[in-house]
Amino acid sequence: MNALFKALSHPVRRRIIEMLRKGPMASGDIAAAFDMSWPTITGHLNALKEAGLVSPERDGASIRYRLEISAVEEALAFLMAMTGTGQREDDREDRS
Amino acid sequence: MNALFKALSHPVRRRIIEMLRKGPMASGDIAAAFDMSWPTITGHLNALKEAGLVSPERDGASIRYRLEISAVEEALAFLMAMTGTGQREDDREDRS
DNA sequence: AGACTAATTAGGAATATTCCTAAATTCAAG
DNA sequence: CTTGAATTTAGGAATATTCCTAATTAGTCT
Lengths: 96, 96
Hints:
homodimer; about 100 residues; Arc Repressor Mutant, subunit A; three-stranded antiparallel beta sheet
């Protein structure tokens, strides 16, 4: 859970996640979309992988990264637990 | 949005948020719940305040911090946009 | 195998985060 | 207005993050 939110805490990593929503992408294509060195992007991809947010799979010469929606949903569940969406019946005020 | 996810990226800050779900708490009471110095907790409260996640209000001798649910919902909206919950009609596959 | 392409690892500098103790601030109440 | 309690600010050490360039690995293709 900690690695997850830590991964989400960097703008470049969030943008990578956004890019991958449309489908898996090669490491090089992701790197090309940023004004940063490829190794730097590899580092961010590693952070996302550690967090379970993406998974790599080889595709011929290149490696494609796929977004793991389930990990995003974990973070979502945590936040929903605080907006009251996941609130227990007993805790509610509007009890009749 | 960046300050928001950055604020959420530290376990102590997430735990503070969880504590405040039950209602506003004094800075000292929050600090007492952790095995850390009070100034350290003040620092975390400042980060949460910068992110709009909490707001301080004086209550006699002490200062109570209140959770700002709307800020949590911002983060929630961002994540929902990637799980497909906020997906546009045109993007869906199960179109009939 | 050898050359080429895709991607990662290594090493290191700059910067940011986290946490501490000590000092300052702010307010309440005698 | 002084004392005391609640809280924040200041300053600084230890650690972590972010980013770079150079070197390396892994895989493709002739």
